[in-house]
Design a protein that fits this description.
10% helix, mainly beta
Amino acid sequence: MSRVFDRVKETTSTSGTGDITLSGAVTSFQSFSSVLSVGDGTFYAIVDSTSGLWETGIGTYSANNTLSRTTVLESSNNGNIVNFTAGTKQVFMTYPASQSITSGTSIALSIALG
């Protein structure tokens, strides 16, 4: 199960397609380590505003200050894992639209539950 908390955002300078090393919370935000334990899953987004590269997915907080990119849900690379270049990027918790209950699902749930 993926955990989501409000106002969790850090920076990273990690490049490539591997695990993300988290560099600390952005001012007025929480760190991943303040709300997750090693082994916890979460929804995440990574954004490189300089290059325009981005990715959303399901990740695992796999070690202290490390987020493993377990499953990519959407990305600027046609839904595949993004090969991020050097430089600072933002990493934050999010609730991806593809994982949310849509209005069509809500109607089905309403009918099923009465």
